[in-house]
Amino acid sequence: MSLLNIFNIAGSALTAQSQKINIIASNLANMESTIYKNGKYYPYIAKTVFFKFDGLKENSKIGGVKVSNILDDTTPMPLIYDPNHPMANNKGYVLTSNVNPITEMVNNISASRSYQANIEVLKTAKSMIIKTLTISE
Amino acid sequence: MFDKINKIFDFSQNALNLYAKRQEILSSNIANADTPGYKSIDIDFKNELSKVLQQKNIKNKNILLKKTSLYHLNGKNNHSFSLKFIPVVDANQIKPDGNTVDMDRERIEFIDNSLKYQSSLIFMKNQIKNIMSVLKG
Protein backbone atom coordinates (compact mmCIF):
# COMPACT_ATOMS: atom_id res chain seq x y z
CA MET A 1 0.00 0.00 0.00
CA SER A 2 1.79 3.08 -1.25
CA LEU A 3 -0.08 5.55 0.95
CA LEU A 4 1.32 3.90 4.06
CA ASN A 5 4.83 4.19 2.62
CA ILE A 6 4.38 7.97 2.74
CA PHE A 7 4.50 7.72 6.52
CA ASN A 8 7.91 6.07 6.33
CA ILE A 9 9.22 8.55 3.77
CA ALA A 10 8.00 11.73 5.46
CA GLY A 11 8.86 10.28 8.87
CA SER A 12 12.46 9.69 7.83
CA ALA A 13 12.63 13.27 6.61
CA LEU A 14 11.30 14.51 9.95
CA THR A 15 13.95 12.51 11.78
CA ALA A 16 16.74 13.79 9.53
CA GLN A 17 15.67 17.42 9.76
CA SER A 18 15.31 17.29 13.55
CA GLN A 19 18.80 15.76 13.80
CA LYS A 20 20.05 18.68 11.72
CA ILE A 21 18.31 21.16 14.03
CA ASN A 22 19.88 19.38 17.02
CA ILE A 23 23.35 19.79 15.55
CA ILE A 24 22.68 23.46 14.80
CA ALA A 25 21.53 23.99 18.38
CA SER A 26 24.70 22.30 19.61
CA ASN A 27 26.84 24.53 17.37
CA LEU A 28 25.16 27.70 18.59
CA ALA A 29 25.34 26.62 22.21
CA ASN A 30 29.06 25.80 21.96
CA MET A 31 30.20 28.95 20.15
CA GLU A 32 32.46 29.91 23.03
CA SER A 33 33.29 26.39 24.20
CA THR A 34 36.65 24.71 24.41
CA ILE A 35 37.39 21.03 24.04
CA TYR A 36 39.98 19.38 26.25
CA LYS A 37 41.86 16.80 24.21
CA ASN A 38 45.28 15.14 24.73
CA GLY A 39 46.21 17.56 27.52
CA LYS A 40 45.45 20.64 25.42
CA TYR A 41 42.50 22.96 25.04
CA TYR A 42 41.03 23.43 21.58
CA PRO A 43 38.16 25.67 20.47
CA TYR A 44 34.91 23.94 19.49
CA ILE A 45 34.71 23.01 15.80
CA ALA A 46 31.35 23.50 14.05
CA LYS A 47 29.64 20.31 12.85
CA THR A 48 27.81 20.00 9.54
CA VAL A 49 25.16 17.40 8.73
CA PHE A 50 25.07 15.55 5.40
CA PHE A 51 21.86 14.02 4.08
CA LYS A 52 21.72 10.94 1.95
CA PHE A 53 18.92 9.37 -0.07
CA ASP A 54 17.56 6.25 1.63
CA GLY A 55 15.69 3.97 -0.78
CA LEU A 56 12.72 1.97 0.45
CA LYS A 57 14.03 -1.20 -1.17
CA GLU A 58 17.19 -2.20 -2.99
CA ASN A 59 17.71 -0.05 -6.10
CA SER A 60 14.41 1.78 -5.69
CA LYS A 61 14.32 5.37 -6.80
CA ILE A 62 11.77 6.44 -4.23
CA GLY A 63 12.58 6.62 -0.58
CA GLY A 64 13.26 8.80 2.40
CA VAL A 65 16.32 10.58 3.75
CA LYS A 66 18.85 9.70 6.36
CA VAL A 67 21.76 11.52 7.91
CA SER A 68 24.78 9.96 6.21
CA ASN A 69 27.41 11.53 8.41
CA ILE A 70 28.23 14.47 10.63
CA LEU A 71 31.55 16.06 9.76
CA ASP A 72 33.62 18.90 11.13
CA ASP A 73 33.26 22.20 9.35
CA THR A 74 36.40 22.89 7.31
CA THR A 75 36.25 26.68 7.46
CA PRO A 76 39.46 28.03 9.01
CA MET A 77 39.43 28.95 12.69
CA PRO A 78 39.68 32.70 13.13
CA LEU A 79 42.76 33.99 15.00
CA ILE A 80 41.96 36.82 17.35
CA TYR A 81 44.50 39.09 19.02
CA ASP A 82 43.94 38.83 22.76
CA PRO A 83 47.22 38.66 24.71
CA ASN A 84 45.49 38.38 28.10
CA HIS A 85 43.62 35.25 27.12
CA PRO A 86 44.93 32.10 28.86
CA MET A 87 44.97 30.17 25.56
CA ALA A 88 46.94 32.83 23.68
CA ASN A 89 50.11 31.75 21.87
CA ASN A 90 53.46 33.52 22.27
CA LYS A 91 52.43 36.23 19.79
CA GLY A 92 49.23 36.99 21.66
CA TYR A 93 46.79 35.36 19.21
CA VAL A 94 43.96 33.01 20.20
CA LEU A 95 42.30 30.39 18.02
CA THR A 96 38.53 30.78 18.31
CA SER A 97 35.67 28.52 17.30
CA ASN A 98 34.62 28.61 13.63
CA VAL A 99 30.87 28.55 14.32
CA ASN A 100 29.22 31.19 12.16
CA PRO A 101 25.96 32.19 13.89
CA ILE A 102 24.49 33.65 10.68
CA THR A 103 25.00 30.44 8.72
CA GLU A 104 23.63 28.41 11.59
CA MET A 105 20.49 30.52 11.90
CA VAL A 106 19.81 30.39 8.15
CA ASN A 107 20.26 26.61 8.14
CA ASN A 108 17.98 26.39 11.16
CA ILE A 109 15.19 28.26 9.38
CA SER A 110 15.61 26.12 6.26
CA ALA A 111 15.54 22.88 8.26
CA SER A 112 12.46 23.89 10.22
CA ARG A 113 10.65 24.84 6.99
CA SER A 114 11.45 21.42 5.53
CA TYR A 115 10.18 19.86 8.75
CA GLN A 116 6.90 21.75 8.40
CA ALA A 117 6.54 20.76 4.73
CA ASN A 118 6.88 17.11 5.66
CA ILE A 119 4.32 17.52 8.46
CA GLU A 120 1.87 18.81 5.83
CA VAL A 121 2.65 15.77 3.68
CA LEU A 122 1.84 13.49 6.62
CA LYS A 123 -1.44 15.33 7.29
CA THR A 124 -2.52 14.98 3.67
CA ALA A 125 -1.64 11.28 3.56
CA LYS A 126 -3.52 10.71 6.80
CA SER A 127 -6.68 12.39 5.56
CA MET A 128 -6.46 10.43 2.29
CA ILE A 129 -6.24 7.14 4.16
CA ILE A 130 -9.15 8.09 6.44
CA LYS A 131 -11.26 8.99 3.40
CA THR A 132 -10.36 5.67 1.80
CA LEU A 133 -11.42 3.77 4.90
CA THR A 134 -14.83 5.42 4.95
CA ILE A 135 -15.57 4.65 1.29
CA SER A 136 -18.61 2.47 1.84
CA GLU A 137 -20.36 4.63 4.41
CA MET B 1 -22.58 -11.29 -11.88
CA PHE B 2 -19.82 -10.43 -9.42
CA ASP B 3 -17.39 -10.38 -12.30
CA LYS B 4 -19.53 -7.56 -13.76
CA ILE B 5 -19.43 -5.67 -10.45
CA ASN B 6 -15.67 -6.05 -10.45
CA LYS B 7 -15.53 -4.62 -13.95
CA ILE B 8 -17.45 -1.56 -12.85
CA PHE B 9 -14.76 -0.76 -10.30
CA ASP B 10 -11.86 -1.63 -12.59
CA PHE B 11 -11.07 1.84 -13.80
CA SER B 12 -11.47 3.63 -10.46
CA GLN B 13 -9.43 0.97 -8.72
CA ASN B 14 -6.51 1.29 -11.10
CA ALA B 15 -6.67 5.08 -11.05
CA LEU B 16 -6.65 5.05 -7.24
CA ASN B 17 -3.65 2.73 -7.11
CA LEU B 18 -1.78 4.92 -9.52
CA TYR B 19 -2.66 8.13 -7.66
CA ALA B 20 -1.48 6.54 -4.41
CA LYS B 21 1.78 5.50 -6.08
CA ARG B 22 2.28 9.00 -7.45
CA GLN B 23 1.56 10.48 -4.03
CA GLU B 24 4.35 8.32 -2.66
CA ILE B 25 6.76 9.49 -5.37
CA LEU B 26 5.91 13.15 -4.72
CA SER B 27 6.37 12.69 -0.98
CA SER B 28 9.79 11.18 -1.69
CA ASN B 29 10.67 14.32 -3.67
CA ILE B 30 9.53 16.58 -0.82
CA ALA B 31 11.42 14.52 1.76
CA ASN B 32 14.62 14.75 -0.29
CA ALA B 33 14.41 18.48 -0.99
CA ASP B 34 17.71 19.01 0.87
CA THR B 35 19.51 15.83 -0.17
CA PRO B 36 22.63 16.56 -2.22
CA GLY B 37 22.50 15.09 -5.73
CA TYR B 38 18.89 13.94 -5.53
CA LYS B 39 17.03 14.25 -8.84
CA SER B 40 13.33 14.95 -8.78
CA ILE B 41 11.25 12.07 -10.24
CA ASP B 42 7.71 11.63 -11.44
CA ILE B 43 5.56 9.31 -13.57
CA ASP B 44 3.63 10.03 -16.72
CA PHE B 45 0.16 9.38 -15.35
CA LYS B 46 -1.63 9.03 -18.68
CA ASN B 47 0.83 6.48 -20.07
CA GLU B 48 0.94 4.47 -16.85
CA LEU B 49 -2.84 4.27 -16.59
CA SER B 50 -3.23 3.11 -20.18
CA LYS B 51 -0.49 0.54 -19.56
CA VAL B 52 -2.31 -0.82 -16.51
CA LEU B 53 -5.65 -0.93 -18.32
CA GLN B 54 -4.07 -2.84 -21.21
CA GLN B 55 -2.60 -5.33 -18.77
CA LYS B 56 -6.09 -5.95 -17.42
CA ASN B 57 -7.00 -7.58 -20.72
CA ILE B 58 -4.35 -10.23 -20.20
CA LYS B 59 -6.06 -12.96 -18.23
CA ASN B 60 -4.84 -14.64 -15.05
CA LYS B 61 -2.32 -12.00 -14.24
CA ASN B 62 -2.34 -12.36 -10.49
CA ILE B 63 -2.21 -16.13 -10.15
CA LEU B 64 0.92 -17.05 -8.24
CA LEU B 65 2.86 -20.14 -9.17
CA LYS B 66 4.00 -22.47 -6.43
CA LYS B 67 7.78 -22.51 -6.19
CA THR B 68 9.36 -25.82 -5.24
CA SER B 69 12.88 -24.97 -6.30
CA LEU B 70 15.20 -22.01 -5.99
CA TYR B 71 15.55 -21.85 -9.76
CA HIS B 72 11.85 -21.31 -10.41
CA LEU B 73 11.00 -17.92 -11.74
CA ASN B 74 8.46 -15.66 -10.13
CA GLY B 75 5.10 -16.06 -11.78
CA LYS B 76 3.94 -12.78 -10.37
CA ASN B 77 3.55 -10.00 -12.85
CA ASN B 78 5.23 -7.04 -11.26
CA HIS B 79 4.04 -3.89 -12.90
CA SER B 80 7.04 -1.64 -12.80
CA PHE B 81 6.61 2.06 -13.21
CA SER B 82 8.78 3.90 -15.64
CA LEU B 83 9.99 6.72 -13.45
CA LYS B 84 11.32 9.70 -15.29
CA PHE B 85 13.41 12.55 -14.06
CA ILE B 86 11.66 15.87 -14.20
CA PRO B 87 13.51 17.97 -16.76
CA VAL B 88 15.13 21.07 -15.36
CA VAL B 89 13.38 24.12 -16.76
CA ASP B 90 16.13 26.64 -16.20
CA ALA B 91 19.64 26.55 -14.87
CA ASN B 92 18.65 28.51 -11.77
CA GLN B 93 16.58 25.57 -10.61
CA ILE B 94 19.65 23.44 -9.92
CA LYS B 95 21.02 24.06 -6.49
CA PRO B 96 24.80 24.06 -6.00
CA ASP B 97 24.66 20.52 -4.57
CA GLY B 98 23.08 19.08 -7.74
CA ASN B 99 19.60 18.73 -6.27
CA THR B 100 16.76 19.43 -8.73
CA VAL B 101 13.71 19.41 -6.44
CA ASP B 102 11.51 22.44 -7.06
CA MET B 103 9.52 22.68 -3.83
CA ASP B 104 6.80 24.93 -5.27
CA ARG B 105 6.04 22.50 -8.05
CA GLU B 106 6.14 19.50 -5.72
CA ARG B 107 3.76 21.07 -3.20
CA ILE B 108 1.27 22.00 -5.90
CA GLU B 109 1.45 18.57 -7.55
CA PHE B 110 1.06 16.94 -4.14
CA ILE B 111 -2.17 18.79 -3.33
CA ASP B 112 -3.44 18.36 -6.89
CA ASN B 113 -2.76 14.63 -6.81
CA SER B 114 -4.42 14.20 -3.43
CA LEU B 115 -7.57 15.97 -4.69
CA LYS B 116 -7.65 13.73 -7.75
CA TYR B 117 -7.31 10.70 -5.49
CA GLN B 118 -10.23 11.89 -3.40
CA SER B 119 -12.36 12.57 -6.47
CA SER B 120 -11.67 9.03 -7.72
CA LEU B 121 -12.81 7.80 -4.31
CA ILE B 122 -16.05 9.77 -4.61
CA PHE B 123 -16.67 8.29 -8.07
CA MET B 124 -16.23 4.88 -6.52
CA LYS B 125 -18.62 5.79 -3.69
CA ASN B 126 -21.23 6.78 -6.24
CA GLN B 127 -20.77 3.53 -8.12
CA ILE B 128 -21.32 1.66 -4.86
CA LYS B 129 -24.43 3.73 -4.22
CA ASN B 130 -25.75 2.85 -7.67
CA ILE B 131 -25.17 -0.85 -7.11
CA MET B 132 -26.78 -0.68 -3.67
CA SER B 133 -29.83 1.10 -5.02
CA VAL B 134 -30.20 -1.57 -7.71
CA LEU B 135 -29.84 -4.34 -5.12
CA LYS B 136 -32.26 -2.80 -2.63
CA GLY B 137 -34.72 -1.72 -5.28
UniProtKB/TrEMBL annotation, chain A:
Instruction: Output the superkingdom of the source species.
Output: Bacteria
Q: What's in the GO CC field?
A: bacterial-type flagellum basal body, rod
Please list the residue ranges annotated as the Flagellar basal-body/hook protein C-terminal domain: 91-131
Q: What main location does UniProt list? A: other
Record's InterPro entries? Flag_bb_rod_N, Flagellar_basal_body_rod_CS, Flg_bb/hook_C_dom, FlgC
- Using the record's annotation, list all stretches that form the Flagellar basal body rod protein N-terminal domain: 7-32
Example of a GO biological process term: bacterial-type flagellum-dependent swarming motility
Metal-binding among keywords: no
Alphabetically sorted, this entry's keywords are: Bacterial flagellum, Cell projection, Cilium, Flagellum
Compartments reported by the entry? Bacterial flagellum basal body
Q: Which family does it belong to?
A: Belongs to the flagella basal body rod proteins family.
Subunit record text = The basal body constitutes a major portion of the flagellar organelle and consists of four rings (L,P,S, and M) mounted on a central rod. The rod consists of about 26 subunits of FlgG in the distal portion, and FlgB, FlgC and FlgF are thought to build up the proximal portion of the rod with about 6 subunits each.
| Protein name (database record) | Flagellar basal-body rod protein FlgC
Recall the taxonomic lineage recorded for the source organism: Bacteria, Pseudomonadati, Pseudomonadota, Gammaproteobacteria, Enterobacterales
From TrEMBL, chain B:
Task: Say if the entry is tagged with keyword GTP-binding.
Answer: no
Q: Does the keyword Zinc apply?
A: no
Keyword set, alphabetical order: Bacterial flagellum, Cell projection, Cilium, Flagellum
User: What is the first-listed, main subcellular location in coarse terms?
Assistant: other
What InterPro entries does this protein's entry cite? Flag_bb_rod_N, Flagellar_basal_body_rod_CS, FlgB
Q: Which residues form the Flagellar basal body rod protein N-terminal domain?
A: 10-39
What's any GO biological process attached to this entry?
bacterial-type flagellum-dependent cell motility
| Assigned GO CC terms | bacterial-type flagellum basal body, rod
Its localization reads:
Bacterial flagellum basal body
Q: What does this protein do?
A: Structural component of flagellum, the bacterial motility apparatus. Part of the rod structure of flagellar basal body.
Per the record, the similarity remark reads: Belongs to the flagella basal body rod proteins family.
What binding partners and quaternary form does the record give? Answer: The basal body constitutes a major portion of the flagellar organelle and consists of a number of rings mounted on a central rod.
**Record-given protein name:** Flagellar basal body rod protein FlgB
